[in-house]
Amino acid sequence: MSLASEQAVAAQQASATNGYYNVHAGPFNLRFQGEMGLELNDNVAYAHTDKDADLGFRPNLNVKGYWQATELNTLALSVGIGYVAYIHDPKRSYVNISSDSGLAFNAYSGDFVFNLHDRVSALDYAIQDASVSDILIRLENTAGLGVTWDLYKLVLNMGFDYDTFNSLSGNYQYSDNASELISGKAAVLISSASQLGLEAGGGFTSYSQQVLEGSAHFSAGPFYQARFTPNLSGQVSAGYLQYKFDHGGDLTNLSEFSGYYASASLNHRLNDYFSQYLSAGRKTQLGIIAELSEEDFVFYQLTWRFNQSLFVAGRFSFAHGNTDGSIQSLGYVNEKYDRYGPGLTFGWHISEKLLARASYDYLNKESDVSFYNYVQNRLLLDFTYDF
Questions:
Q1: Domains contained in the chain, number
Q2: What's the pLDDT tens digit per position in 93-132?
Q3: What domain range includes position 39?
Q4: In DSSP terms, which residues pair with 337 in a beta bridge?
Q5: CATH number at residue 58
Q6: pTM given for the model
């Protein structure tokens, strides 16, 4: 088999045999986790004034499944679904689906790997997009096909996805959209631990309502990935991107946009006790209160494991961004903003099956539009049990 097929099959077979799964039903291997969390939040709706504090209960069930259909063909399942139930204002309660939920079927044939997938998530979008200053739950579903062709020193990849966003918050249903996306990547193996290549992607986006304008976009650029030492790995990518909007700016005064994207990350295991992760870059994405949001970001996390039972993780995030093509008909205006905040998590493996965590996060958004400013303190107590 090719290198890509061999490594992928070996990794999946290892996960199927190392005791990771705790339930076996015929040919299916399953793992079940139950969670119960308690959230204390002093500003649930990311408000500038008249902040609403609330207490939320967060039950959650995680299921992972694996089926070795044949020697080379596998089916993988991951579902994390829960509910956030607020006590003071139940109308803000919502269903939560973790970002790694989905179904994937991998088929291997010689030098080819075929991947059929369907990924789904439902998350508070304001955490992902700092330009949003309100609670916004968005359901995203991505279904598609990816093909990898391994030619030893050259690895080619092509993919097609159909992506949909649906707002579960009534005020933002105008942002519901669907996208047809295509991507390609060519990587040259410089060594067994590094690769250099080119990537490109593009697609079309249309909206269910004529508030935001549909668009076509394209991006392309080089990338590099490497494992520098057994304990240090990283990757970097950069390139050009362009958007063209359907109506030439008739709705939001933005007809086209061109710019660049960039990202870099390092993952470093200092020793048996300390590890750290750093990422930084620039991203552009379709917006909620405007056609586009551009953002420069930095994220750092340091994890300290005292022993096999206790650990603490500290993190800090910073984002500087702006929006372009605001929806003036709905009273939105372009903004420039900074959002930053530290976070801290304590974890304790009470037993082999039970993990307790306490997490605190502080977010401060400072915008040139005063009513987009907010400060939020969030404390989460969480227990996870492996069945």
A1: 1
A2: 999 999 889 999 999 888 999 999 999 999 998 988 899 9
A3: 3-386
A4: 321, 367
A5: 2.40.170
A6: 0.90
